[in-house]
From TrEMBL:
<protein>
    <submittedName>
        <fullName>Glycosyltransferase involved in cell wall biosynthesis</fullName>
    </submittedName>
</protein>
<dbReference type="Pfam" id="PF13439">
    <property type="entry name" value="Glyco_transf_4"/>
</dbReference>
<dbReference type="InterPro" id="IPR001296">
    <property type="entry name" value="Glyco_trans_1"/>
</dbReference>
<keyword id="KW-0808">Transferase</keyword>
<dbReference type="Pfam" id="PF00534">
    <property type="entry name" value="Glycos_transf_1"/>
</dbReference>
<feature type="domain" description="Glycosyltransferase subfamily 4-like N-terminal">
    <location>
        <begin position="38"/>
        <end position="182"/>
    </location>
</feature>
<feature type="domain" description="Glycosyl transferase family 1">
    <location>
        <begin position="196"/>
        <end position="354"/>
    </location>
</feature>
<dbReference type="InterPro" id="IPR028098">
    <property type="entry name" value="Glyco_trans_4-like_N"/>
</dbReference>
Length: 376
């Protein structure tokens, strides 16, 4: 069977939608090697990201032939120009892995699936520019209308699609996300030492991973640490945004420069070691479509504190701890409990690893293939 995918995120995005897209495609390649996988991207993107997809005969990248058209030309190709290329290949279906589909698939006789990750821009419009919200809303709504099947990455996202876009429930299947296999493997001791020395990590620290933006709510952790008075470091890893300066200003005003370290451009190869070295992972985001960093932490055997209000309980399971994303006191109490109660931390490590087994790539690949079979 010939399967086609929108691969722009695969070749261009190192985190988030890129990780999801690579995970789905790699899981399918490993579980269903009899199929051929056609990956459509407007250009070759970044070599190190392409290299995360195996080079083999049944994996074929397709690019816009005339790259001199520039960014507008590439956007046009992803939106509708790609249909001409798809007609030549005649795939069994096209899967839009990141909330959008090209126009004209149905007319070309190509069944389609779209993955919708979240509708955060509607729930929390204050976190987005007006023009971005309008573009997202147009693309997501249109994709939901055009797709033969919708994959929602959580039950929360499914209910949002039904409520906001009035999509029939039977059109939507929930298929959870997984994380890269590297987080399931124990890092070698020399790798742990290398990362510890490279980033000057302390013996014990709290970890947070995710873009340093307002929605991700890093400041809540910093405030909780200030309140606790505990001498433990916080290491935050993520892309900088204007919100980063807000966090750093609070750090300076409260003389916490030695306690909080913000890192960006951390190598993906180093991330599993960070998780495995951490004493605790905290993810207090106001809203997520799923929360892959939580799954990365669970698979690494790291206790997790996350926020209520979205789908993070689905990702973290019943043995992780949860707080209101505005509750500094509650977070402070749970940090103290885990760090001072070894039996609780050990229980969370063991139970978390067990819970994370339901998100293994073989199971998710089968769920995705079940969605495909419904429309082929």
């Amino acid at each position: 069977m010939k399967l086609a995918f929108d691969a722009k995120r695969i070749t261009h995005n190192a985190t988030g939608l890129g990780n999801y897209s690579r995970f789905i495609v790699n899981s399918l390649i490993n579980s269903y090697p009899e199929n051929s996988y056609h990956l459509y991207s407007p250009d070759k993107g970044k070599k190190h990201l392409r290299a995360l997809i195996p080079e083999q005969e049944n994996v074929i990248f397709h690019y816009l032939e005339n790259e001199i058209l520039g960014s507008l030309g590439k956007a046009w190709w992803r939106s509708c120009g790609i249909i001409g290329d798809l007609k030549k290949e005649k795939p069994a279906l096209f899967h839009g892995l990141s909330n959008e589909l090209p126009f004209g698939l149905s007319k070309a006789g190509i069944p389609s699936v779209v993955t919708i990750h979240d509708l955060i821009f509607i729930r929390y419009p204050q976190f987005y520019k007006t023009i971005d919200r309008n573009i997202y809303n147009f693309k997501f709504r249109k994709a939901c209308l055009l797709a033969d099947k919708i994959v929602a990455v959580s039950e929360m996202t499914k209910q949002d699609i039904i409520r906001i876009y009035k999509v029939p429930e039977e059109k939507i299947d929930v298929v959870y996300q997984g994380c890269d296999v590297s987080f399931l493997q124990q890092a070698e001791s020399n790798k742990l030492s290398e990362v510890k020395n490279k980033y000057n990590l302390p013996e014990h620290f709290i970890l947070n991973v995710g873009s340093i933006e307002q929605r991700k709510n890093l400041l809540l952790i910093v405030k909780a640490l200030k309140q606790s008075g505990k001498d433990i470091r916080l290491i935050a890893i993520g892309r900088r945004t204007p919100y980063t300066e807000t966090v750093e200003q609070y750090i300076r005003e409260n003389n916490m420069q030695e306690q909080v370290t913000i890192l960006n451009n951390v190598s993906f190869d180093d991330l599993p070691a960070f998780y495995q070295l951490a004493s605790l992972f905290i993810y207090p985001s106001f809203f997520e479509g799923f929360g892959i960093p939580i799954l990365e932490a669970l698979n690494s055997g790291t206790p997790v504190i996350a926020a209520t209000g979205s789908c993070l309980e689905e990702a973290g399971g019943p043995d992780s701890l949860y707080i209101n994303p505005e509750d500094v006191n509650g977070l402070n109490e749970k940090i103290n409990w885990i760090l001072t109660t070894p039996s609780q931390a050990e229980h969370m490590r063991t139970a978390g690893k067990e819970y994370a087994k339901r998100f293994l790539d073989q199971a998710i690949a089968q769920d995705i293939m079940n969605v495909y079979q419904k429309i082929i």
